[in-house]
Amino acid sequence: MTGWLIALGLAVLAFVALLLAGRIPRSAREVTAAALLLGMAGYAWQGRADLPGAPRKPLETKGEGFDEKLAERRRGLAERFGPAGQWLMLSDGLARQGKTKEAANVLLSGLRASPEDPSLWLGLGNALVAHGDGVVSPAAAFAYRRALAIDPEGAAPRYFYGLALARSGQLQEARDLWAPLVARAPRDSVIRAELESAIARIDAILRSGAAVPQ
């Protein structure tokens, strides 16, 4: 946790220094903030910030941790064809081999070419969560929020950000993201039924005060 606090502090200090000393135009401030947070993604790639330094053990079985069903759901809700789809397919291929760092790196390359593509930001959030063994790091949260900001009415950013939060035990935050999505979804849609069931389970857990299932 200390590592993330230090990294966040440095990012904030760098942004303030650029504002004061560099006199960044208002139109460039969002891009500057995005660049600083993307830099933190590199920090996330080096391993788990909350653990002592140690070499990362390679996966014995390639693709063992890749969630094929999750990738299929993302393809159904987000990108289909075009440049974003190509970058995401390449990233998925690397993730299947257990190369989570490279999978995220590919999406960063795509974002340099298309910085306003919500599907690429969403894919980066998913890739960083996978690389962090399910932890929603500050860099992953930033990527999800960028996808939400660019595509506020889209189903995919809310669905996957909420899913990552729920899996990490942040149930109320996940519920807050999913509730508007359920309200907008067609009554007979699969995603509405799925999320209504998930929200009902979250409500039951929150009411009972039971420990969050791991």
TrEMBL record:
Cited Pfam families: TPR_14
Protein name: Tetratricopeptide repeat protein
Taxonomic source organism: Sphingobium amiense
